[in-house]
Structure formats: C-alpha cells, structure tokens
Amino acid sequence: MSTSPTDTEPAPTPPPGEPEDPRLALLRGMVRIRRFEERCVELYSAERIRGFMHLCVGEEAVAAGLVGELAAQDAVVSTYREHGHALARGVPMASVLAEMFGRATGCSRGRGGSMHLFDVARRFYGGNAIVGGGLPVAVGLALADALRGEPVVTACLFGDGAVAEGEFHESLNLAALWRLPVLFCCENNRYAMGTALELEHAQTDLALRASSYGMPAWPVDGMDAEAVAEATRRALATIRSGRGPCFLELRTYRFRAHSMYDPDRYRDRAEVARWKDQDPVERLRTRMLGDGGLDGASWDRLVAAVDAEIEAAVADAEAGPLEPVEDLTRFVYAEPS
Amino acid sequence: MSTAVVPERLTYREALRESLRDALRADERVFLMGEDVGRYGGCFAVSLGLLEEFGPERVRDTPLSESAFVGAGIGAALGGMRPVVEVMTVNFSLLALDQILNNAATLGHMSGGQLTVPLVIRMTTGAGRQLAAQHSHSLEGWYAHIPGLRIVAPATVADAREMLAPALASPDPVLLFEHAGLYTSEGDLDGAPVALDGAAVRRTGDDVTLVTYGGMLPTTLAAAEGLAAEGIAAEVVDLRSLRPLDEATVLASVRRTHRLVVVDEGWRSGSLAAEVAARVAEQAFYDLDAPPERVCSAEVPVPYAAHLERAARPAVDDVVAAARRTVG
Ligand SMILES: Cc1ncc(C[n+]2csc(CCOP(=O)(O)OP(=O)(O)O)c2C)c(N)n1
Ligand SMILES: [Mg+2]
Are residue B296 and residue B242 in the same domain, yes or no? Predict the structure, then answer.
C-alpha cells in the first residue's frame, strides 16, 4: 500500500510466498493510531502532555486510508488534529511523543507540541492551528512543485469548520484557476468545536460547494478505510494527470470531545453511540474476520505489536533531553547552514 | 433592573459573564456573537448559560468566519445595534484585522464624522498555558497603535465586572482584552464604576514606579512584594486602558518615585512598553534618576515546552532585577 516511509514493523507477517492482504496495512495503520491516541489520553491525564490536544479517535480511516495512499514525494499539510496524519505519514512515533513531552528530540524540537508536528524530511508540513490557515500554504507548495515540473501532489487536510473561512474559498479558487496539484481533504466530522454542521453552513453539502470552483469533488464514507483509500487513488490519478485539484469530503465523526478541555455538552449521547456503531477499526476488522482475511490469533499479534511499539516510543521519548533554555530564540531566523 | 444577588467574591470569568448578563438585560440592542459562544458556552466558558437565558437571537453562534462576523458586528453597530463580538484569541483576530483597522477604526473619520461604530470586541490574549505560537501572543500593543480604537485590558475581577458597561456606552469601537491566565483568578467586587481611560494605582510606594496592565499585574504585584522585603517601596500602576493612555497617572507617579519600570507581555521592539517609556522620557526626563527599564517577552514566537515558555515571558525575578537596577 504505502510508499511513504514508515517506522513500523509489519505484523502479522504473511506465510512465505503469499502476498499480504493489503487490508492488513490499513487495519494496522488504524489500530496504531487508535491505541496511540488512547495512550495520549493517559499521558495527558498524568500531565506528561500539556496544552491543547485534539484526538482523532473515530477518524482513523481518513488518516490510514488517505495519507497512507500518498507517495513519499507528495506533501502533506494538516491541522492541530494531526497525530494520526503524522503517524500514517511515517513520522516516527517516538518523535511525535517527544514533541508532546516538550523534548529537544521532538519532531519540532519541543517548540510546537501536539498541535504543531512538523517533519519536513517526510514532507509533513505541519500541524496548523489557525483554522483554514494551511490551505493557502498547500496551494503554494503545489505551485512550487508545478513550477519545478515535479509530478507530485500536496494533500491538504482540514475540517468542516474550515469551509466557512475565507481562506478556504480563496484557496480552492486559486488552485482550480491555476490547475494546481492539490488534493483538498475535508474531514467532515459534523462539528466545528461545539457548533454542528447545520449551524455552521447554509449549504451543508460541502462537496457541492467545492465543485462550484470547477474541480472534481465528491463525498466518501470516511468511516470505511477501504473506501477512503479507493477514493484517494482515484483523486490522485486525476490530479497526477494534470487536470488540477480534487476535493474529497470524508464523512466521519470524532468519538471524543473536541479537545481535552471540552466538556462535550453539545452532542446527543445517542448520536455519538450511532456513530460508534460505524467504528472504522471494528468495521474493517469484522469484515476481515468474516471473509478469512484475519483470524483471532493474527489480530492479537497485530495489537500486541502495536502496543509494544507504543511503549517503546514512550520510553524513548521520556529519555529525550530538554532543549537548553539558552537556545530559546534559535530558529526565529534561519541559521547559517 | 438586575434582581439577582451578586456574590461578593467572583472569578474573573464569572465577573465577565455577569457583566454580559447585565448588558443583555439592560439594553435590547445588545447582542453577543462569536464562535461557540452559545451551545458550547464560550471557548473559555465566559458565556456559559447565556444562550439559555437570552436565546439564539441574542447569543449567536457564528461559523468560523472571523472577518465576516467581526465585519457584521461593525455593520450592525452602524445599523443601530450594540454588538459584543467575541473572538476566541487575539491570534485569530488577525483574520479580522482588515475589518478592525480598515473599517471599525476608520469609518468615523473617513466619513467626516457621519458614522460611529459603537462596537465591543472581546478577545483573549497572552501565554502561560503551553498553547504554543498560534494561540499565545500578546498583540494588544499592536492594536493600541491604531487611532480610532479604544483598547482596554481588565486585570482585576472588579475591572472584569465593570468595564463592559462603559465600553458599550462608548460611541467608539472598543477592544477588550482578557488574559487567558486570569480567568480563574478570584477577587472582591466593590461595585465602583470604572472609567474607560483611567489607570489605577494598585499599590503605593515612593522608590520606583512599576507600570503594567492585564495579565502582568499579578507578576508585577508579586515583584513589588519581593522588593518590599528588600526595603524598596514600589508603586504599581495598572494602565487598564492602553489607548488612550492615562499619562497623567503615570507621570504623577514617576515624578514622585523618579524611577520607571514597564512590564509588558508583548514583544519588546515597538511595544506598548516602548510607548510608555518614550512618553515618560519626553515629559518627565529631568525627574528621572535612572534610565527607564522595560521587562517584556523574549522576541520569539511563544514555544510549547514549559521551560521555554516560562523563559520567554516576563517573570517576577526579571521585574525585581529591573527595579533594583533603577534604584541601584
Ligand atoms: C481562525 C481560527 N478560529 C478559531 C479557532 C478555534 N478553533 C480551533 S478548532 C475549531 C473548530 C474547527 O472545526 P473543524 O474545522 O470542523 O475541525 P475539527 O476540529 O472538527 O477537526 C475552532 C473554532 C482557530 N483555531 N482558528
Ligand atoms: Mg469538524
């Protein structure tokens, strides 16, 4: 599946000679993110992680299915809810955790925290915490690639809330006007903080609105990792053929509150429960157990391998040093190389 | 009007909420709008419960469209309403900066006095909670650069309770800055009305004047306490209003103490602290026994890691050291 660099060991391994079921990589990718996020809750409660932290539990199919389909040379621009995107991109788990622990070994040297993960070696252009702020930058990255004649795509992830910002509309128009290779990925989880989609948008069909800028745009079941991967492949093929940007509306849901500060007063418990029935991890797992793509033992091995990776990453991150205080003002300006 | 028994002791957050409640009760033209002010209860829970009391017409959740809803606040003010617009943090207000500067601050003058914009924009400012560089800046000094705006920064619970009323009574656009680190602070109310443009002397002393505002008041008061233990009597002036500046109060204090330290969470270059120091130098130069000192934030986007964030912000020890230098 993925041509992006990754630091995970494949588990379980297929019998010799048989190719691995490609769905296993999707499942493993989602389980990795799910269990990582749940570990982050514990670490946050223990005050090892501070500040704002936004989890993507429930939305793993987008991270694994979409980011996992990108090529290594493609670029990614994300938001503050980006742990899953970073992990799917292959940003090492230990460096993500070290960042949240504020360590010099963090992927942003402790200066960004949970909302600002950067790993430019993997063309992961970060966690932007200004809603809509990443879209113009993604357009510019794509412009640079187009001008340099590189056949690569910039994937820009953002939420349904961002669609209300002027920067969204300006960016889609610009990308379409100049036929730039941008994949606009709207994770429509139906809420912008506490404001429901219907209270945020006069026209809630977000793909329809994107299509008005003259680009292919369609909704995708964002709780189905295979559907997300399939839609991403189609969109990438269109973009790589030089026909300009595409827009995917990934219909999904966050199972947890907006952030660790959010008491979640605005959602009906029954609604949350209905969406939990669509749990993307469970859906794929059940499908694979049903058709023989997975058995109980290989599932157990998969989870155990993920948990081992997480615990090793926590230990590794904990061992990382703090940035010396004397270096406080480094990187405000570029350093001579 | 209000029959609710106001408790004597409130948090800063509760005080702001009570002032909003009073304003909504007192004047039909007043309404509150912003992201998540209603169902969510406000991102810092300031407006919690107001939707239930006043309904969605007057406590309006907006889409993520800072430029549009701040601009709509300006238009509604032109149209005879008294809007209170909440922007979650000063960093996000930059998406509305065009409306604030090119419209709110400008329309009165540019129309030859035909228009007034009686609008209040509330927003949080400041660092201290490890929210990193897109949520933590102190840009109120920037806004204080702009003629046509009034800028206030309540630093105490009593001011948080009393500043909204004169802000709404003002025919001019008022930006009200709430420091994120103050929401849980507690204080007593004295019920005394607050003028929009008057500084307050928070502690008297004869040896050095410490001028500050907003979220740096607790730090500055703690420094004054520390200095007292060393036998240095510091006077603490809380500006309250950053534009216009109450020069008279600052100058009167400096003429008595002959020494000035300005404590400001903004970046040092081109800061409000620079403005205060310049005015004192211009008007009280010969009263000074030492060069003015400034204690400001390090010139760096606020970093996430706790130890780096702490190092970036003015600390009690920095203020004490600066004051010592002026008396030394
Ligand atoms: C310009 C701006 N305005 C407001 C905020 C505060 N804020 C952070 S996330 C958020 C909701 C965004 O919703 P959405 O785009 O749907 O993304 P989600 O959090 O659901 O993933 C808000 C209002 C912000 N970060 N930036
Ligand atoms: Mg959303």
Answer: yes
CA A214 distance to own-chain centroid = 26
Among B124, B153, B188, residue at a domain's last position: B188
Please give the torsion angle defined by the CA atoms of residues A79, A137, A111 and B89, in that order, rounded to the nearest 10 degrees: -70
DSSP secondary structure, A107-128, as one string: TTTTSS-TT---BGGGTEEEEE
Q: How crowded is residue A45: how many other Cβ atoms within 10 Å of its Cβ?
A: 10
User: How far A306 CA lies from chain B's nearest CA (Å)?
Assistant: 27
The reported pLDDT for the residue numbered A15 is 64
Q: How far apart are CA A263 and CA A296, in angstroms?
A: 36
Give the one of B41, B61, B299 whose C-beta lies nearest to A332's C-beta: B299
Kindly report, residue by residue over B12-31, the tens digit of the pLDDT.
999 999 999 999 999 999 99
Instruction: Please give, rounded to a whole number of angstroms, the shortest distance from the CA of A265 to a CA of chain B.
Output: 7
Q: Which residues of B139-156 are buried (b: 16+ CB within 10 A; e: fewer)?
A: bbbbbbebebbbbbbbbb
A194 with B132: Cβ contact below 8 A: no
Task: ipTM value, please give it.
Answer: 0.95
| Å from CA of A189 to ligand 2 middle | 5
Size of interface A-B (CB pairs under 8 A): 123
Domain boundary among B188, B216, B248: B188
* Alpha carbons A204 and A215: distance in angstroms, whole number: 18
If asked whether residues B167 and B212 sit together in one domain, one would say no
Chain A residues within 8 A of B61 when measuring between CB atoms: 194-195, 199
The pLDDT tens digits of the residues spanning B42-67 come to 999 999 999 999 999 999 999 999 99
Q: Which pLDDT does position B8 carry in this prediction?
A: 75
pLDDT tens per residue, range A176-195 = 999 999 999 999 999 999 99
pTM (2 d.p.):
0.95
The mean pLDDT of chain B is 96
A22-317 CATH, one of 1.20.120.1200, 3.20.20.370, 3.40.50.300, 3.40.50.970: 3.40.50.970
Q: Indicate the residue type of B163.
A: M
C-alpha to C-alpha distance for A233 and A210, rounded to whole angstroms: 19
* Sequence ranges of the domains in chain A: 22-317
CATH number at residue B164: 3.40.50.970
A21 is written with which tokens?
A: 């079921």
A65 lines ligand 1 (CB under 6 A): no
DSSP strand pairing (A75-79 vs A124-128): parallel
pLDDT of B82-111, one tens digit each? 999 999 999 999 999 999 999 999 999 999
